[in-house]
Structures are given as structure tokens and as C-alpha cells.
Amino acid sequence: MNTKLILILTLLLSSCVNSESSENPKQEIENLQENENNSIEGNNKIKNKQVVEDQDETSTAATIMLGTWYGEMNGKKLTIVINKVNGETLSGFNILGTNKRNLKGRFQIGTWDQPCSKAYDVTLNEPGDDKWDGVFTLKFVGYSNTIERGEGLECEGSYSGAEASGVWKANNGKLVHDFYLEKK
Predict the structure, then answer these.
(1) Taking a C-beta distance cutoff of 8 angstroms, is the pair 134, 173 a contact?
(2) Confidence (pTM)
(3) Domain 66-183 has CATH 2.40.128
(4) Per-residue pLDDT band at 136 (split at 50, 70, 90)
(5) Using CA atoms, how far apart are residues 137 and 103, in angstroms rounded to an integer?
(6) Burial 16-26 (b: 16+ CB within 10 A, else e)
(7) Residue ranges of the chain assigned to CATH 2.40.128
């Protein structure tokens, strides 16, 4: 049976049961189609808004995380370079002493209890083809300028990367080291 015919018959039957139903089945069908179209448009607006928000978040994350970060781990100079942020992924490399390893990973929005700050929780994996490769689990934090307005503080300007800290753990589980980094 034709789908439209079934729909029309269903509407006719329901109009007999429900006195508030429309007297015109054709109008009822048009109303249903219009509601469906409005629903699709509403869903598209929500998706488009989410895309814009995701792009803004990626832009903020890139502003904070992209660049060169310096610190120390296990008595050796540690450098982490983040050279690409895309969606929820990032990549770069690290140098510990004279050992350079590529990094790839993912990030998500983190928490940080200071006004006008933005944090990202990150997991960066070394390739895994060396027995001492491992995983960096860290938090990147960026800050915006704060200004006093009325009864509170407001954030002004974009966020800039300022600090990162975390833990590196060898894939073989034999080593674990904490570290702190600053962006220069």
C-alpha cells in the first residue's frame, strides 16, 4: 500500500475518534510535513551552532597549546613542541636530553580553579617503536587578562598559553616521571 494512502487513512480514522482533529486530511498531512521540515531545520541550526562552538574551542586550544614548552624531567631538559591542533587532536614532538620522539594525541576541556583561565587535559603518545617510549598525560593552561567591573572580575582578550604539568609513563610500566613546563 502507498505510504501517503496509509497516512491519509490513519488521519481519517483518528479524526473520527478525536473531535479536535482537523476536518481536512490533506491539511493535516501538510501540517505534519511542515512540522517535520521545521524539526529538520531546527536540528541543522543546532548542528551548525555546535560546529561554530567547536571551531571556537579548537581556536582557543590552538592559541594556548601551539608552540614550544620548556621544563625538566628526571634531571634532563625536556622540550615539548606542539605544532598542530585540529579538532580534538594534536601533534608535535618532544626532546628529552638528546632523544627526540614524535607525539600524537587527543585533548578535551579541563578544569582550572582560577578566574579567566582555560585548561585542556591532554594525552600525547610517543610512537611506541622504542622500548622506552611512553605516554604524556598533562594539563595545558592559558590565561586571559582580568579586569574589575562592578562587583566582579571579567576576562578580557584571548587566552595565551602559560603553563603545563603532568606525568610521563613508560609503555613498559617501569618508569614514571612528573614534569612542569612553561611556554616561551
Answers:
(1) no
(2) 0.68
(3) yes
(4) very high
(5) 12
(6) eeeeeeeeebe
(7) 66-183
